[in-house]
Amino acid sequence: MNILEVKDIYKSFGKTDVLKGVSFTLEKGEVLAIIGSSGSGKTTLLRCLNFLERADKGSITVGDKVVFDASEPEPKASVTRIKQLSFGMVFQSFNLFPQYNVLENVTLAPLLHAKESADYKKRKKEIHAQIEETAKSLIARVGLSEKLKSYPCELSGGQQQRVAIARALAMNPEILCFDEPTSALDPELTGEVLKVIRGLKSSDSTMIVVTHEMEFAKSVADKVIFMADGIIEECGTPEEVFDHPQSPKTQAFLNKITEI
């Protein structure tokens, strides 16, 4: 059963058409890698999925629920927040709050969400304890138990990105999205972040990874999408896309990457 169905997504900025009818499906537990040149629409697609941008046309279905339909009026903020819980987002530039330590960065969103529940005041202490326990477990999962009280300025780029992954997981999203998670890192720090993402695959997480790390995409992804000029130019297994590409644009892109 598909956990995600993206149907006919269009997005323009002014007179610039960025997405021109993007459609794909993803099954629970699958890892989808999205590759392509800069300006092909990869990041805009992720931002539409996470409701950071509103698509002009199209629909997004998670499980059996349509969480977005461009033909319908924009929902109230409270409804949008509920929809956003379907997706978690890990950005290129970490986006950690510098005034909060690692534990506080990971617990902040779950605590804010918990305060909206009807029984929060009655169960405040219990809820806080549960959220903190979960956060510590996630921080341990990304290998940073010894950094609970450290602030972002005291961490390497790779450590900050691992905290960002733990923060995204803290909201227990159905689908976890990564927007070129290693692009802001020095080469020696890239491996530690990719190792964490590989570990998440083994835990049956459903993930969408926009990446320029071709070997990583080839070895970890179940499905690969190559985007060009705002459309999906080619889609298939890693073997189909990387070893036997059918589209001339895919072939040209991979040849160029190989030459670098």
List the keywords:
260 residues; alpha/beta; Rossmann fold; four-stranded antiparallel sheet; 39% helix; globular
Question: Would you mind describing this structure in some detail?
Answer:
- The structure is a single chain.
- The chain is of the alpha/beta class and 260 residues long.
- The protein has 9 helices and 10 strands.
- It has helices at residues 42-49, 77-84, 102-114, 124-141, 157-169, 187-202, 214-220, 238-243, 248-259; strands at residues 2-13, 16-27, 31-35, 57-62, 65-69, 87-90, 175-179, 207-210, 223-228, 231-236.
- Strands 6-7-8-3-9-10 form a 6-stranded mixed beta sheet, with helices on both faces.
- The model has no long low-confidence stretch (mean pLDDT 91).
Kindly summarize this structure in a few lines:
The protein is of the alpha/beta class and 260 residues long. Helices cover 39% and strands 25% of the residues.
Helix and strand layout, with pairings?
Blueprint: E1 2-13, E2 16-27, E3 31-35, H1 42-49, E4 57-62, E5 65-69, H2 77-84, E6 87-90, H3 102-114, H4 124-141, H5 157-169, E7 175-179, H6 187-202, E8 207-210, H7 214-220, E9 223-228, E10 231-236, H8 238-243, H9 248-259
Helix pairs in contact: 3-4, 3-5, 4-5, 5-6
Helix content range:
25-40%
**Averaging pLDDT over every residue, what do you get?**
91
How are strands sequenced across the largest beta sheet? 6-7-8-3-9-10
- The arrangement of helices and strands along the chain is EEEHEEHEHHHEHEHEEHH
List how many beta strands DSSP finds. 10
Q: Within the CATH hierarchy, at the fold level, what is the topology?
A: Rossmann fold
Oligomer: single chain
Rounded radius of gyration (Å):
19 Å
